[in-house]
Structures are given as structure tokens and as C-alpha cells.
């Protein structure tokens, strides 16, 4: 029997989620950092010279689905993103983005932080 997550997965099961598969190394990706809670890997369709996705190993479908208990994990993801930016020599010029919901550009429903760097960014992002 397929285990269904309690949070919204856009009709997907966790066993089908591509980012869960990347975290389990069932799908190939260029992993740049990993620890017990999180994995960071290069985006397959980079929007900047450096474009890395940082995900929790545990499936949370979106920021809106995160709860109080996830606070420490979310902080961990942010700090890991900052460490990667330093390792990637982005200095202090980089952008961290979370798209929440299809209307805001979310296409993969496993929460992820985009780390973008290596070019100039404009505001508003559009
Ligand atoms: P979103 O649009 O949900 O904020 O971001 C999803 C990101 O995941 C996109 O930038 C897209 O290029 C990336 N992506 C989608 N599928 C894969 C994949 O199989 N491997 C990798 N490395 N990135 C992916
Ligand atoms: Zn997932």
C-alpha cells in the first residue's frame, strides 16, 4: 500500500516526489552538500551561474504546510544555504527564494530554497 502524506502533495505520493527521490539518491543529481536533515543539489535548469536547491530530507510540500515543529528545520535550511553561498564564493551577493504555491511559481511540491548567485539581480523579481 502506498503511504499518503497528510499534507497536500498535488495528487502525488511521497514515493513519487522527485525531490524525495533525489534525497534518497534514486534520481541522479549534482549534490553539493548533505547532512542528516537536508540535501543541496544543483538545479537542472539553472537561472543563474550558481543555482542550488536546498531541501529537507523529510517531505514538506510547501512553506505554507510547515508547522511550528518545523521551525528548527527551516532555520537549519537557511543556515545551510548561507554556508553553501560562502563555499561557492558568492560573497554577500546572492538571492534566496522560496516559491509558495503554483501562482507564485512553485512547480515541485517538496519545499525548497533556491540559492541564486553569480549575476546581478533586479527588484521586483517579477
Ligand atoms: P519551483 O518552481 O518549484 O520553485 O522550483 C523547482 C525547481 O526544480 C526548478 O528550478 C527546476 O528547474 C528544478 N527541477 C525540477 N526537476 C528537477 C530535477 O529532476 N532535478 C533537478 N536537479 N532540478 C529539478
Ligand atoms: Zn518529497
Briefly say what this structure is.
This protein has 126 residues and is of the alpha+beta class.
N- to C-terminal separation? 42 Å
Number of domains: 1
Strand order of the largest sheet: 1-2-3-5-4
Q: Under the CATH scheme, which architecture would be assigned? A: 2-Layer Sandwich
The whole-angstrom Rg is 14 Å
Structural class: alpha+beta
SS summary, helix count: 2
SSE ordering: HEEEHEE
> What's the number of extended β-strand segments?
5
**What's the mean pLDDT score?**
92
**Biggest sheet overview:** 5 strands, antiparallel
CATH superfamily: HIT-like
Structural shape: globular
Annotated CATH topology: HIT family, subunit A
Tell me the fraction of residues in β-strands, as a range.
15-25%
Q: Which blocks of ≥5 consecutive residues have pLDDT under 50?
A: 1-8
Helix content range: 10-25%
What would CATH call the class?
Alpha Beta
Bound molecules: guanosine-5'-monophosphate, zinc ion
Give a verbal description of the structure.
The chain has 2 helices and 5 strands; from the N terminus they run αβββαββ. The protein has 126 residues and is an alpha+beta fold. Helices cover 18% and strands 20% of the residues. The N terminus is likely disordered. The N and C termini lie far apart (42 Å). It has one domain: 2-Layer Sandwich (HIT family, subunit A). The protein binds guanosine-5'-monophosphate and zinc ion. Zinc ion (ZN) binds next to helix 1.
Notable traits:
alpha+beta; 5-stranded antiparallel beta sheet; disordered N terminus; binds guanosine-5'-monophosphate
Amino acid at each position: 500500500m502506498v503511504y499518503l502524506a497528510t499534507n497536500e502533495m498535488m495528487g502525488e505520493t511521497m514515493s513519487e516526489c522527485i525531490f524525495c527521490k533525489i534525497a534518497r539518491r534514486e534520481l541522479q543529481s549534482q549534490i553539493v552538500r548533505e547532512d542528516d536533515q537536508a540535501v543541496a543539489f544543483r538545479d537542472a535548469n539553472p537561472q543563474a551561474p550558481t543555482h542550488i536547491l536546498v531541501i529537507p530530507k523529510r517531505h514538506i510540500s510547501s512553506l505554507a504546510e510547515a508547522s511550528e515543529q518545523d521551525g528548527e528545520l527551516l532555520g537549519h535550511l537557511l543556515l545551510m544555504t548561507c554556508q553553501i553561498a560562502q563555499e561557492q564564493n558568492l560573497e554577500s551577493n546572492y538571492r534566496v527564494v522560496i516559491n509558495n504555491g503554483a501562482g507564485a511559481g512553485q512547480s515541485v511540491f517538496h519545499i525548497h530554497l533556491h540559492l541564486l548567485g553569480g549575476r546581478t539581480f533586479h527588484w521586483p523579481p517579477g
